[in-house]
Amino acid sequence: MSKNKLGEFPFEKGIYKNMYKDRLWTMRQYAGFSSVSESNKRYLKLIESGVSGLSIAFDLPTQIGYDSDDDMSFGEIGKSGVPISTIEDMENLFKNIDLEKISVSMTINSTAAILLAFYFAVAKKRGYNFKKLRGTLQNDILKEYIARGTYIFPIEHSLRLTSNVFEFCQKNIPKWNSISISGYHIREAGSTAVEELAFTFANAITYLDKAKDDGLDIVKLTEQVSFFFNAHRDFFEEIAKFRAARVIWAQIIKDRYKITNVKSQLCRFHVQTGGSTLTAQQIDNNITRTTLESLSAVLGGAQSIHTNGKDEAVSLPSEKNATTALRIQQIIAHESGVANYIDPIGDSTLIKDLTQKMIEEVNLKIDNIFKNGGMKTLIENGEIQKEIEDSAFKFQENIDSKKTILVGVNEFIDEKKDIDSGTSFEDKSKDRLKLLETFKRNRDSKGVEEALEKLVYTAKSGENLMPKIINCVEKNCTLGEIIFALKNVFGEYLE
């Protein structure tokens, strides 16, 4: 295997020379609750607890382009995250939070351009220095067609919006990662570790090719690209996967795009422990699972980690469980001694062999994807989805037959049912609808109409949509109104 040192191509051992001895990974906690005010309270407490970055979870209506007062939002407002429909919502979400000091990660895809516009408009209103703003926008729409389903527009129009965001970030907020290409959700949908990496990097190639066709600076763009991976069950396989990811990406950038810029070659990634590995049965066992998964991310060289709460198999985590999850990372960082050593297990024969095997299998799969038409074609044909479904089915078969042991589920079962209900959901939708009604009543309707007309006109051209989306946000258009205007031009994607 490679004899390269830390911080040297192809970065198998780590992207930085001294890794965590110089700087620990960012400890993020992912949160979003039934209302903007409740989410803001949780963020302030997380910052007080020691997190160095916030990861925002949005509710389902926000993810698929509906305002909270839309009939389609009924029953889903605030359930899977925070509802955001207006610039006022975004202002209140970050109330008393200095955006120049706290990095913000937004897990949003089909409406990513609009949520970024809300964020940017708030930053502009507060007079922040745009060059100091740090964060990550997931903005990874292809994996929505593959694994999650929160798409809106046909693929070609979605790719246009993604590319528009790239260009906007390059010019205006250079420290923002304009995309976090996600293998996490692909893995959550049931893929193998090899499929997680292969489909993620094939998506990345698709985005870069689109940006290149649009005339963007690929060197600058690749400096901004980051990834989001899953820390799953198999401890050593996961460590090898993270190490393999760095090698594969460095080779893609150097060989496929002929980019020698070292910063472009670095595979920087955030890791979240596997939600699908958690069980509703015997939920205290989940603390052990997330500890091992977090440690695999550390030994794999992650730049940022989120540890799931033990109750996330049944609900959003309680405040107590979210804090306990954060403490897991802090104990690994400050008590275990792991961070005192640079690449402590990198010379293990087992890790080297597993990493090499992973690299070979992933590269073979990527080659086959592009020989058969690329990701857009294979997604539209349903072939990628089918492969993930087959892997998920096989895994479930192994659970059912006890070939794979899941403690507390198919073995070592307690007779008593001890499923914890976790955080109880407090429905605040009535209060939310009143706020939205007041917001719409007090705005300049003519200004809203004019801003949306300008957006439609630009959508019909080939221009970048971000300036017009920001104009809409500043004129108090809602997320749903902006999406509806774009639907009139782009149409909707039907599987």
From the coordinates shown, what is the CATH architecture?
A: Alpha-Beta Barrel
Radius of gyration: 22 Å
- Based on DSSP secondary structure assignment, what is the total number of beta strands? 9
Largest sheet composition? 9 strands, parallel
Broad CATH class:
Alpha Beta
Count of individual helical segments: 20
Query: What spatial form do the alpha-carbon principal axes imply?
Result: globular
CATH topology: TIM Barrel
Measured between the Cα atoms of the first and last residue, the distance is 43 Å
Fourth-tier CATH superfamily name: Methylmalonyl-CoA mutase
Domains (count): 1
Placed side by side, the strands forming the largest sheet appear as: 5-4-3-2-1-9-8-7-6
Describe this structure in words.
- Strand 3 (103-107), helix 4 and strand 4 form a beta-alpha-beta unit.
- The protein is α/β, with parallel strands linked by helices.
- Helices cover 51% and strands 8% of the residues.
- The two termini are 43 Å apart.
- The chain contains 20 helices and nine strands.
- The mean pLDDT is 93.
- The longest helix has 23 residues, at 349-371.
- The relative contact order is 0.14.
- It has helices at residues 36-49, 60-63, 87-93, 112-126, 142-148, 155-172, 184-188, 193-213, 218-224, 235-256, 262-265, 285-299, 319-334, 349-371, 374-380, 383-400, 429-441, 445-460, 466-474, 479-490; strands at 26-31, 53-57, 103-107, 135-137, 176-177, 180-182, 226-231, 269-273, 304-306.
- The chain has one domain (19-400): Alpha-Beta Barrel (TIM Barrel), CATH 3.20.20.
